[in-house]
Amino acid sequence: MICVLGLALTAQAQVGHTLSGVGPVDQALSGAGTANPQDILGALHWNPASITRFGTSELSLGVQLLFPTSDLNSSVSAGAFGPMFGPPMDLGGTTASEAGPFVMPALGYVKGLGESRWNYGVAAVVSGGFGTDYPMATSLAGNPINTPQPPNGLGFGAIYSSFALMQLAPTAAYQITDNVSFGIAPTLNYAMLEVKPFPAAAPDDANGDGFPSYADAPNAGATGFGFQAGLLATMESGFSVGVSFKSPQNFQDFEFDGVDESGAAKAMTFNLDYPMILSAGIGYSMDKLELAADYRYIDYANTDGFDTAGFDNTGAVTGFGWNSISVVAVGVQYQLTDRLPVRLGYSFNENPVPDEYTFFNTPANAIIQSRVSGGFSFDVSEKIGLSTGFQYGFENAIEGAWQHPQFGSVPGTRVESTLSTLFLMFGLDVAL
What is the reported pTM? Predict the structure, then answer.
């Protein structure tokens, strides 16, 4: 578990604050695993009650490699910022993010039922994150938003963000009847956040040049706590139904030790919680065929750090301003041979980032909506299985105006973010 969490400290996922799935099997099914999971990682992550489906003890290790493609485009019309800042001519440009690839590990263990009605398990997974790395424009002829902060430019300079959230979930499930199970898991979280520059703290003019600027927020960690509970019902007809509730994960504040314009210490804080997630799923098992469909509700709009956007009276940005979203995922698995199951999946979600808040979300452009996935496993022996898969997030874009602390949206300006993603996944399962 320590190794998994250590590897995750450098992981960022540009698919939003929450991942669509964990491990090569669950991701190949696009996260459709609330009622009919096909591996223990998906079961532990989406519905603790569903670990009762696994009659033997099992250890699972998964690794996901994320390759994001992200561009930041902006333009400013001549004179848009007034007589002092101009600019004297129309400016525009595009910056490609240099972030990635990223490694996201996952580790799970489930102890089989045996003669008992109790099942136990534990998972350590990277469950969310984001990351961008847009370099500074070298001249005013470059991308305006990546020019230096005033007075040497119009924008924010290089924009860098790195967020990774790791979750540890010791899990217990009880088989109430032969067909109904209940599970619960306390969730222990650790997250790392770094943002440069950091707009959630008030800009300072410590050097007295009359041009306040935002400081950098170096890497800082925070812990959070919550729980997950779920129910699973199976039927003799092959159908299964599952529901789960992941509570909000309440984090302590991130505390950053930054410096102001003069180089003096500048303490900054920010609260960023993990949203409540409601999941409901239906599954069907028949001979060599496994089907699964999930509906998921992610409540960003009522989560600290995501619930508001805009500037306060000090010029600090209050948050990302995301909407709560619905997610639909479907997956199919077919047992091609006794040792070779193959999988396909598709998921669609609403975009949590409103266009009018594009400016505030340049460090966290969580805008992927459609994903297609696939993969297969191969049983090397009765006890060892290998899995691989992919997931592609189709490119999406959002666009809005620049925002100003006093004047709001600035006419004659534009900011656009685009993002597409590719996951490659690998895994090892060992029956114990």
Answer: 0.94
